[in-house]
Amino acid sequence: MFGTFARRLTSWYVVAATVVATIVVAAFAVLALSLYVRVVNEGIDDGARAASLFQERAKSRDQSFLDAALEFESRDHRTGVRVLASAPLHPPPDFLRRAPQASFPLLMRPGEPPRPHLSLPSPRPMPPHEMVTVVDGKIIPHDMRSLRFEGSRLGFAVATVFGSHLQRVSFLNGDMYFAPNPDAVQAVTLWLLAGVLLVGFGAGALAWFTGRYITSQVLQPLVEVTHALQRFAARDFTPQPITVAGKSEFDAIALAYNAAAAQVAAAFDERRQVEQQMRQFVADAGHELRTPLTIVLGYIDLLRRKAEAGDERSRRIFASIASEGARMRTLIDNLVLLARMEGEDVRPAEPFALRPLVDDIVDARRVVAPGVRFDLDLPVDATVIGNREEIHEAIANVVDNAIKYAPGSPIRIAARAADSSVEIRVADEGPGIPPDDRGAIFDRFYRGTMRGDVEGSGLGLPIAKRAVERAGGTLTLAEGVPGGTTFVFKLRTDGTPATQARTSRV
Known about the structure:
Number of strands: 14
Order of helices and strands: HHEEEEHEEHHHEHEEHEEHHEEE
Largest sheet: 6 strands, antiparallel
Number of helices: 10
């Protein structure tokens, strides 16, 4: 219902929170990396100054290069700084003497002489065995140029981007280099990157759960109102007020629904009271009208008998009066019966056999409609639970409709066992019921567009449906029947044992 909207809204929360958190944490990571490189640069500069001072003490003590380099590296430990000391195994020529101290970016080859202050001839490449290097407290008989940029390329690149530099100082008869440790820079970079990703993921997850909670709380009134309206659409008008927590502006919708539901409930209560009063009035009026109508019909019958010896006109008048009086009595009886069935007068439900009931109905109709053929198919011996008189009235009304609206058509009554019930079908081969009339055939006083000159009150099917429902069953109009009309009764039973099929045609 609102799940797609909630997920879409939550997705925007997640994207926004993840992007903002990642940008903020990435900015802090860049700042932290910049501060780290600055600390490394300060360590490089301090190390270069300390090496210069240590060189003076080493000269005064006549220390050799290797002893002094090893002692300095064992004492001097700085965060993220790599120290390399290198010297030739014999004194180099004068033209290879370098400046006492120099600083240059990482991207510049440290072996190049400074320009344009000094123009020197290209130094002669020195074979590796003529150089000795001290790094990490170890003596390596190797040229330091192959070790100077050894390590993580990512660490060198990050250090270069953030402005790190090298420091070279003269140390006794060699050189000492101070440079950022690329492996340490890479480790710090990866840790910061992992922190950015972790915070971004955590922010996304937190935004997801928070967004789902917020959207569920905000949309809860809409969801409940929608469910309540769906109950209304299913004709369930039971008032179920929606609790308002005051957490969102959508609560106004819930408040409006509660007010509307209260009005609808009050209207239905008023309608039930009016209907109850109307049923009571119909029942009372029917009872009051029955006696005088019976007396009037009795006198009319007496006058009709006396007028039989008179002229034809008098006989027709009295016959018409008697017919309309009988029709009025039938209408009053049906109204009283329907009012009783829709009221609180509940007749006791007792088990009774279905087959004798159907036989009684058919036998009575064979007398009044001798030209109608009845086909009975009753292969089950069912014991129906309900009021026998009301079920008799229901089935008889449907059979009477088939006789009236499908004249000359055979009427088939079939029964079969269902789940703890029995299904009875009453079918004819008449013109059928138009699709436009199917939805209203169980309404009171509705007779349809195909009634023609057939007399009736429009109360037979409503009485039949109400009688079946009072017995806990259903009465429906079968769908998809190719011709004619088929009504389906479904009645409760206490067992429907199958017997030998009994089929009769009369």
